[in-house]
Specification:
α5 links the parallel β4 (about 90-95) and β5 (about 110-115). The mean pLDDT is about 95. The chain has 2 domains: about 5-205 and about 285-310, Aldolase class I (TIM Barrel, Alpha-Beta Barrel); about 205-280, no CATH class. Helices cover about 40% and strands about 15% of the residues. The chain has 14 helices and 11 strands. With about 300 residues, the protein is of the alpha/beta class. α2 runs parallel beside α3 (about 50-60) and α3 (about 50-60) runs parallel beside α4.
Length: about 300
């Protein structure tokens, strides 16, 4: 399965695991890389010393390429990036910020840089900034999301039309059929987050994993656009937010309600009532918690079988 993405990262399959906060530790990243994809450590939930530990453990667990995802909205980004350089990580995915800020710094260190975007405008800006590829993430995706509500089905061909660098499709992809559809639309590879949340190697709490498996269509919603748009499973915390919206709550009140540690409380500690339960719409197609190797094998097998039927 040769594409511009397999060549760029030197991987077997054009499947990238999303670098999700509280879900994407070294066990998940190394398992995805060992199974032929590209695993990403989600640095957004890690203090610098914790990130260093996860990188070192990942290097010991796989001899395959892996990377780190860095959301640029955190105050200690510079320290995290310095650790990435010191530890010899060769692939970095940046998100939630201006791609011009750190791309040149990383490229000068010989690091392959990919930026996550939710619009054509920022895809073009990312190419101008010198990134090696973009992840074009549609509105269906879990976690932090774009405000434009552009779906993957429309975003991928529009981005592909405007950039020359490789495009990785994300948002609403968890199966071989979804992967094939994204590549027919012009993607050179796919990034999957939600599917790998419900894996044995994910660092998410088992209660959250089970909640993902239980989810059906309509069980998630994009909210908190005033702060940072995030797609959540509807729970007690979500319902309280909706009550605040009904009362025309201010941005400051919403921020106070969110507080600190909501995502950790929900996804890592398993508080299904009071935590943020971030997941994509595709959760309705995730029916079991499985080992990563089995997940990737199923995706590739379905991709090849469906491809032959056309």
């Amino acid at each position: 399965m040769n594409t511009r993405i397999t060549k760029l990262f030197n991987i077997k399959y054009p499947i990238i695991q999303g670098g999700m906060v509280w879900n994407s530790g070294w066990r998940l990243a190394s398992a995805v890389s060992n199974a032929g994809g590209l695993g990403l450590i989600g640095a957004g939930s890690m203090y610098p010393d914790v990130l260093r530990e996860h990188i070192q453990k990942c290097k010991n667990a796989t001899d395959k390429p892996f990377g780190v995802n860095i959301p640029m909205l955190y105050p200690n980004v510079k320290e995290l990036l310095e650790i990435i350089v010191e530890e010899g990580v060769k692939i970095v995915f940046t998100s939630a910020g201006n791609p011009k800020t750190w791309t040149l710094f990383l490229k000068e260190k010989g690091i392959t840089v990919v930026h996550v975007v939710s619009s054509v405008k920022f895809a073009v800006k990312s190419e101008e900034a010198g990134v090696d590829a973009v992840v074009a993430e549609g509105f269906e995706a879990g976690g932090h999301n774009g405000r434009e509500e552009t779906t993957t089905l429309t975003l991928i061909p529009m981005v592909k039309e405007k950039v020359t660098i490789p495009v990785i499709a994300a948002g609403g992809i968890a199966t071989g059929r979804g992967m094939l559809a994204a590549m027919v639309l012009g993607a050179d590879g796919v990034q999957m987050g939600s599917r790998f949340v419900a894996s044995e190697e994910s660092s998410a709490h088992i209660s959250f994993k089970n909640e993902v498996v239980k989810a059906e269509d309509g069980d998630t919603h994009l909210t908190l656009k005033e702060l940072a748009p995030v797609r959540l499973i509807k729970n007690k915390f979500y319902n309280e937010l909706q009550e605040m919206y009904a009362q025309n709550a201010t941005k400051e009140a919403l921020k106070e309600k969110l507080g600190r540690g909501r995502a950790k409380k929900g996804m890592f500690e398993g508080d299904l009532e009071n935590g943020e339960l971030e997941i994509g719409q595709i959760a309705g197609l995730i029916h079991a918690i499985k080992p990563v190797a089995e997940i990737i094998e199923e995706i590739v097998q379905e991709f090849e079988e469906v491809k032959k039927s056309f």
